[in-house]
Amino acid sequence: MEIETSPSLQALRNLLSSEDLENIPADLNLDEYLMRFLKFKGDPQRAYETLVKYHKFRNSDKTMFSKMCPNAMKHLIDAKIITKLPGKDVRGNPVILVCCKRWNEKEVSAEDIILLVILFLEEIIRTHGSKVSVVIDWEGYGLSKYRQLTYRNLMRSFELARGTFPISYKAIHQVNQTPTFWLVSKILFSFFSTKLKKRMHLHGNDKESLAAHIPVSSLPTDYGGNSEEYTDAAFTDTLYKNDEYYSLLSKHLMRNSDETEVFVS
């Protein structure tokens, strides 16, 4: 798809170093790739800074990111631990649902969960834009899941929350919080920016409170809505159809797999 070159896009191009270009597969449409960052931050300099942080995160955790291919992750996607709801919130943003009770921690690791979140964010950025709302259902989150919150997984979560990805979290809704939730919040949420903390909503089991932010037409019945669907089937189909794109990113990332991988916090 041809993209008309705007002054902002040209300015962002001019900021790219040879090292930046090495991080982008040559087979990808460069302008399409760069527009993801410009849609997130309209200013070319700020868009470039996000791009650098994004590449740094990917390069610091190559082993994890190399696994990010939808077809290879089908068993994780089918588990519906993380889904994109068919509808949108009251502001028109796509909504991701994280359902802890569907997470069997004996079969699915915390790293798998983080990779799933990243995959869904990547696809939303590609197909819907730079804004998203998140609902986290904490029912079923106990100590056995909490124990998987290692330093490395904590830092990965931190990266996702601090603008490493070209996406803005417009709201994060916490529902059915368990006692273990408060342990997580004291650790993880302490890293969040003041702006992101203000976008947190603690609903407990108050379904009417959640429905004030996400229409009942978009919410599954378990959350006080009238939708029978938890998954946007068209979104999932597109995700699988874009497997070649993600495979290309993974192969390019691992082109120098003999290099030492260093996780950068």
TrEMBL record:
<dbReference type="InterPro" id="IPR036865">
    <property type="entry name" value="CRAL-TRIO_dom_sf"/>
</dbReference>
<protein>
    <recommendedName>
        <fullName>CRAL-TRIO domain-containing protein</fullName>
    </recommendedName>
</protein>
<feature type="domain" description="CRAL-TRIO">
    <location>
        <begin position="73"/>
        <end position="231"/>
    </location>
</feature>
<dbReference type="Pfam" id="PF00650">
    <property type="entry name" value="CRAL_TRIO"/>
</dbReference>
<dbReference type="InterPro" id="IPR001251">
    <property type="entry name" value="CRAL-TRIO_dom"/>
</dbReference>
